[in-house]
Design brief:
heterodimer; A: 149 residues; alpha+beta; Jelly Rolls; 4-stranded antiparallel sheet; 2 helices; 10 strands; B: two-stranded antiparallel sheet; 12 helices
């Protein structure tokens, strides 16, 4: 009888031990998936983001990256969420003081997996990434080069 | 019978445990011993966070090469830096800045789908990357296979750019951002050199403007490098780039703010910035910048 318990326990350990590994997505997988979302645009940079859920009554932290974008260039920002976490990422693009665009339109509630940015001024821009409703999330944002304008 | 089953399950468990060990992330900093001279332990002038802000996408071989190709200038291997002396690049400074220079040349060749000479460049990059202990991020065998078979050239570009990003990230995360900054500087110097050579042969207003707008990029690059000015080699590079920056004082950049607009086209969201940026650069200033950058670059690659 005792042996049967041991067998059950060992089965449980093996199953539990492997279940996460079967489903967990690696950062590289997310970058590759995001590359597919970006289509035929040429990959430039990736920004992995992992954020904990916001605490009750507090705003969730945002990941921030600054990058140089060039005039007369069309870029693509793509976002890819890990299926292992509930959060759906929102990416916002700012110049020094203004929101220029985002993949999530609050007014319509519509999210886009990517958006293009037609840059007309060379300089430093900032992207902020957070997760809808402050949920815990893991995502990769990808910057790609689409074409010269 | 049960005992036998327990043994089998125990074996399975041990096998699973071994497998999961293999899948754990490898801490390369422990696996590869890094000489002290490579790690920068001096005081930084600006915070690590501020450096993160500056460093991203400062110079991209893809964008400059795409511009050169877009204006219709044919490919020329004469512009490329020679890989003949790579084995003599004997300091981490030379190795890191050389990585940037050859990375830019690789991007230029990839943009034109010229795989003939690519293997020399990926071999040079591997040698230099190994020299500063980041060779594990450079997928030499895949790149060589893609270049040799002359197929799937998009993958060649994708993997090489991604490998450079991985090296850059690893260096920054392991207190070696001095080397990461030198790679960025190398890419920038070679990109301006390529632009300059093309302009000398085929003058073009768009390319000249591109040189002019580098005033913004160079000021960010200088901020980055000034963190490490206690290193004599980097100090020398800063002095050289300061001379270029001095010439850039004659370049005027003005702005006119516009309202950004968002449109949906075939289901794709497109943001149009609508700002205007005017860049004024005289021919004299343009060629001073080109000549000075070429001198700095040639000093680096000729040892």
């Amino acid at each position: 009888m005792r042996n049967i318990y041991i067998i059950y326990a060992l089965f449980a350990i093996i199953l539990l031990g492997n279940s996460n590994k079967l489903s967990a997505q690696s950062g590289q997988e997310l970058v590759d998936i995001c590359g597919m979302i970006a289509g035929d645009a040429t990959y430039l940079k990736d920004f992995p983001i992992k954020l904990d859920a916001a605490k009750v009554g507090e705003e969730q932290a945002k990941a921030r990256h600054s990058l140089v974008l060039s005039k007369n260039t069309q870029y693509r920002f793509s976002i890819c969420n890990s299926k292992d976490y509930p959060g759906e990422a929102i990416i916002q693009l700012y110049d020094n003081n203004r929101l220029l665009g985002t993949n999530y339109i609050v007014a319509t509630g519509k999210s886009y997996p990517s958006f293009d940015f037609k840059c007309t001024s060379t300089g430093v821009y900032h992207i902020f990434i957070s997760f809808k409703e402050g949920e815990q999330g893991l995502a990769v944002a990808l910057l790609s080069f689409v074409k010269r304008l | 019978m049960n005992k036998r089953l327990i043994y089998i399950l125990l074996s399975l468990l041990m096998f699973a445990a071994c497998r999961s060990d293999k899948q754990k992330e490898v801490d390369f900093s422990k696996e590869f011993e890094v000489p002290d001279s490579v790690i920068y332990d001096g005081e930084l002038e600006i915070s690590e966070q501020a450096m993160e802000d500056i460093v991203q996408n400062i110079s991209s071989p893809v964008e400059i090469a795409a511009l050169i190709k877009a204006v219709g200038v044919p490919f020329s291997k004469d512009y490329l830096a020679t890989t003949n002396f790579v084995d003599d690049y004997n300091t981490s400074f030379k190795k890191a800045i050389g990585l940037g220079i050859f990375g830019a040349d690789l991007g230029y060749q990839n943009m034109y789908n010229k795989t003939g000479g690519v293997i020399d460049y990926i071999s040079a990059i591997r040698t230099l990357a190994d020299g500063i202990h980041v060779g594990q991020f450079f997928d030499f065998s895949t790149l060589k296979r893609l270049a040799t078979n002359n197929q799937n050239l998009d993958s060649l570009m994708y993997i090489s750019v991604q490998n450079f990003n991985q090296m850059d990230r690893y260096l920054r995360e392991n207190n070696r951002s001095n080397l990461s900054s030198l790679i960025v500087a190398g890419v920038w110097i070679e990109s301006i050199y390529l632009l300059g050579e093309v302009i000398k042969e085929a003058p073009n207003a768009e390319l000249s403007e591109k040189i002019g707008e580098q005033k913004i990029i160079l000021s960010n690059l200088m901020l980055l490098l000034k963190n490490y000015e206690r290193d004599p080699s980097i100090k020398k590079l800063i002095d050289d780039l300061s001379e270029i920056q001095e010439i850039y004082k004659d370049v005027t950049i003005t702005y006119e703010k516009g309202e950004p607009e968002a449109i949906e086209q075939d289901g794709m969201l497109i943001i149009i910035q609508n700002d205007k940026q005017y860049i004024e650069i005289s021919n004299e200033t343009l060629f001073q910048i080109i000549d000075k950058t070429a001198k700095v670059r040639n000093n680096i690659i000729q040892l």
